[in-house]
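A reminder before we start the practical. When you read a complex entry, don't treat the lines as separate problems. The point of joint prediction is that each chain is placed relative to the others, so the output describes one connected object in space. Small molecules and nucleic acid strands, if listed, are placed in the same frame. In the example below there are two entries. Take a minute to note the order of the lines before looking further.
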Amino acid sequence: MKRIGVDVGGTFTDLVFWDDESGRSFTHKTPSTPADPSQAIITGIVELCQLAECDPMSVDMVFHGTTVATNIALEHNGSRVGLITTDGFRDILHIARKKRPYNFSSYQDLPWQSFPLVRRRDRLTVAGRIRADGEVEVPLDEKGARAAIRTLKDAKVDAVAVCFLHAYANPAHERRVGELLAEEFPAAFVSLSSEVAPQYREYERFSTTALNAYIGPKVSRYLGNLAREAAAKKISKEIHLMASAGGVVTLASAAEKPVSLLMSGPVAGLLAGCEIGKASGQRSVITLDVGGTSADVGVAPDGELRMKHLLDTKIGAYDAMVPMAEVDTIGAGGGSIAYVDRGGMFSVGPRSAGADPGPACYGRGGTEPTSTDALVVLGWLRPQNFLGGALDIDADAARAAVEVRVARELETSVEYAATGIFQILSHSMGEAVSLQSVRKGFDPRDFALVPQGGAGPLFGWDVARQLQIPRVVVPRHPGIASAIGLLSTDIRYEFPATVWERSDDPDLDRLEAEFRRLADVALEQLRADGIDEGAVTIARTADCRYEGQGYELRVPVPGGPVSPEWVADTVAAFGDAHERAYSRRFEDVPVQIVNIRVIGVGTVAKHAIPPVAAEGLDPKGALKQTVAAYFPDGESSEPRQHETAVYDRSRLGSGAEIVGPAIIEQFDSTTIVGPGQRASVDQVGHLIIEAVAA
Amino acid sequence: MKSETRAQAVSTSLAGSAERRTTVEVDPTTLRVIGGALDAIAKEMAQVLYRMAYSSIIRESEDLGAGIFDVSGRELCESDSTPMHIGSIPAYIRGVNRRLAGTYQPGDVILHNHPYHGASHSPDYCVLIPIFWEGEQLGFAGCTGHVLDIGGAFPGLSLDVVDVWAEGKLIDAAKIYSAGVRNDDLFQHILDNVRTPDMNRGDIEAMIACCRLGERRFTELLERFGLETVLSAVEMWMDYSERMLRQEIEKVPDGVYPAPEAWLDDDGKNYGEPLKIALSVEVSGSDITVDLTGSSPQVETAFNVPFEGSVLPTCNFAVRTLFLDEATHQEFIPQNDGAFRAVSAIAPLGTIYNPRFPASNFARFSQINRIPELLGLALAEVMPDRVVAGCSAAVQSLAYSGVLDDGEQYWVYVEVNEGSYGGRCGKDGLDSVDCLMANTRNNPIEELELRQPMLCERYELRDDPPAAGRWRGGIGSIRRWRFLTKTFVGAEGDKRTDVPKGLFGGHDGHSGEIVLNPGRAGEKELPAKFTNASFEAGEVLEILLPCGAGYGDPLERDPHAVLVDVLDELITVAEAGEDYGVAIDPGTLTVDEAATRELRAARHRGGGDG
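Here is the predicted structure of the whole assembly.
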């Protein structure tokens, strides 16, 4: 089987080709085309196939990760959306949860009011009311619904979100309005809340649905272009997209529910980490993907993704109640700006110099010191190695920026200031890792850290040291890890339903029927995707809470018939999850099963990362030179100068062993091995750093 | 209760006076790292509490606070959950210390809610766990949370009650665990005296889990960096917060700035008898004092304010918001004892802001939320670009309750309704959002209807036009509940008579309203405060929340902003002409620029006549 992974980022589109039979792989990078991202994808695939000397038609599968949906939401440039909602509830999206983002501020803006997904003029109401138990309180006013649809059509909206109260319990009114829309306004992109996010909590469900409609027309246009162009160029049979929950979905399904693509990019990075770890014998991984402005942190115990709490699934300021793998983003990257504030406090980020003007050392007019500048001062980033020397780096400008803006203010040496910039960022990354691991009941000592992105391997060694993570696995190509992650995913769908059952008085037949119904939907979808029945697995989870609590925890629950034993197992699984999250369980309190979910997975044959040639234990052949570089002295911020070997990563064969401190350079990334640490290249070419000195 | 303990409790600033136990050198990088860790501890504590809690006021509204404190109650770090709780725990600790100082042991868990010994008000329970390090008590992990019911005369909310004992069960520094052993009888006794024992038990468990987590995290921090370094860093962060605030206060010329005269409607019993609020601000160098002298004497109902637990945290909030607005000051300035040092408050004993024991002081939000509003109005002339026109300020809360089917417990739902902001320099007021000291979340209607026998008929922006101004006032909401069974209701609100005041030519806002059975037989307007009303199945209660005032002359409003409000059906074409002098073509719905110029010119000429 021949496969291609395509990761579309803001600047570059990364591609990886993999042929199972021959074991050959190729990577490629091409500039992104933000106006129509499909162009770079098609160009990249054609170029990559030439490189691999393979006919694009013979490619079996293309897996695609994209930030297009995310960027529409973050840049507020989605489509004009109309909303049809229950009479009396026109402004649910405007009032939101009525809580201000900041406590101490009268001059803040409320993003949902400043940048509404649907403007008030396009929010129309229709009589028709469902009760919490799903019974109809007021029948749907079909005439009113038709009138509302025509008003929105005349207003030339591109998309319509249909959001009725309690539609998760009874979708009849929404479905009927959906039918009327198909009759009256077939050109509109339509989203029903009962289909996009069939769960209780009206604001979050409405927001998710409106967001889906907001990004829908643009995303489906882009995916349409992609499908058309791919067909014209005879590329592959099937293009799949990475969804936020960590599986891929078909292009058609993604175009219908683009809100499921919001975490597409970061999740691919986490999956890549799992695959990279596995190839090096590490099942439990923590990934640290450091880019220019931000760092993504993900934790996968036993190589399994964890799902975010549904109330934490936001994109920018918008709530999106869809399954998302637990990946956190913090404002710490290569462009993060260091400064000393008016109160004398030393800080780094979250403000970033971005690509323009970029770090001071880029010589494009930036005068504020960034973390990249600090690492130039420390001697870790060498001007001659930036993108293989393709970028002109002004080391003096880096030094001057750190000196003027930080060292003089703090009355310290430039090296001290640079060390501090590194440590502050590294600690905030450590804090993010700890938030995702220790604070959720996972011991980082049981994990391996997989640093990714151009800058990840500069920080990995120190983040691991702080948190006592024993091993760092630096992939062969840290800069394109996300594209590799795309090659190692399954096809995955998740279908939820709100059921409100109680453990002390459950309706077993109803639960069983609901699980079956959802499983049928999942099987149907996977069959439509062309997955063999034999390759399908069905898993169940439930969102539970103790009777009276307000927030659920998601727990895996047994398959098989829903029996009293099944209920007891579910209660026990929830007790474990509650104890892990809050260090406490209650034995005598009934458990409420709020939502149930069925996850259908179509297993895709995985590629194995091939071994690199063994080249003996002596890395001397890869030694470029020895330099003087500065490193922090343990927890102390006082830098110490070390004789540091600089190696060429491409010439390090498996078995090579390195003693830190060392700098290992490759085209788009630099890896640091800290003082006292040891590193070796394993049989698949990953650099393994023993982070915790024995 | 002895009067001298009471007198002793009065202080004018929340800042503690403990001696610095240590000062070792902490380098700038380590300092930053410890600051980040303290913030993360407080945030994580709060998250455990609200995710695990039972009471809807804690879990949905996030009406809670959590942090780490030293033995004298100085705040080392605190979560920024909701302003009313921020900075209230130091006073609780001082109240608890007066009884328990010297008796703390590892494994103790203390519960406290006494409003004359530091509590914010009696339903805000506080749990404290002493933190020990190498045998010595270093401080406390503590949290507060609003429980649904505390017994007393009425479910959920108290107004017309005779004293603090009538408002609810008082718990004054009770050890519910001693050295790790739970006092089951005491715990049971506390739960036996409230209407929602299951809920309260779950909430107390969540609060204990929250404090245990804080204790563990703080100990881990000590293990990592060492006692001396952590405590020195804490002192440096306090000094930093103090310095940042003082730098801003210093920019205001010294002087005494009186707020415009302000009134509270009544005490919830003697309707039609307004109560005066006199507030003035004294700026002296980098110190600021909020003086409430001249405000109404204390009242006979629960409409009084705990001084230490409520007035002091409010003054800190008000000053910090005005001088270090988070939207315009991006620095991370942690909430700690240092943030309190520049701020003090004065309210004579025996007045509404500092009542004498044992007057009830349960219902205090509407009074205290006038403090930040009036502080801004007092300083409007010297800080015109930082202040806000009159806001909803007073908070309308309603407690709905009834007996559960099992006949043993109550269901209680306390709704803290949102308000809106006045116009701001360069920006319209925020619509339908919690105002100033209030910052809680609403409960999903889809959850409420499942738990409570009530049906929501309407929840949207109210129909009245927003208050005109160059930057218009925010728009309040309307909520309509239909009762499906016999329901008890209590209400706490204010500001019907003293509406949000326009600033620099902006129009005044609109007050709130509560209407029973609107548009049908039995329609009746109800006051903002009432005690223990009961309504039958089928009756409807409509609650309208206030609209903030306008800022600046409406004739200077950008005509296109006026058009947007017309298109969004917030104002009519006629109102655009009348209030803003903007002519909008009703056919094309576009601004008629020429007619607008004429209209505005005529208005300016005509303005001289009035």
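Discuss with your neighbour: The longest strand of chain B covers residues 136-146. What might explain this?
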